[in-house]
Amino acid sequence: MNFFTAASLIAVSALSGSEAFSISSRTVQTASIAPSRTSLNSASLYPEDTVTFQEEIKTPQEIEESTSAKSYLDDGFVFGLEGSGLERPRGKVAQVVVEGDTLASEPWQQALVASTLASHLAFCATAISHLNAMNSGNAFLTGAEAIATILSSWVIADFGSGVLHWSVDNYGNGNTPVMGGIIAAFQGHHSAPWTITEREFCNNVSKLCIPFGIPTVAAITLLAGSQHPLVSLFFAIFCALEIGSQEFHKWSHMTPKQLNPLILGVQKLGLTIGRIPHAMHHIAPYDGNYCIVSGFCNEKLDSSGFFRKLERVVYSLNGIEANAWKIDPKLKEKTLAGDYSP
Question: Taking the model in full, what pTM does it have?
Answer without folding.
Answer: 0.74
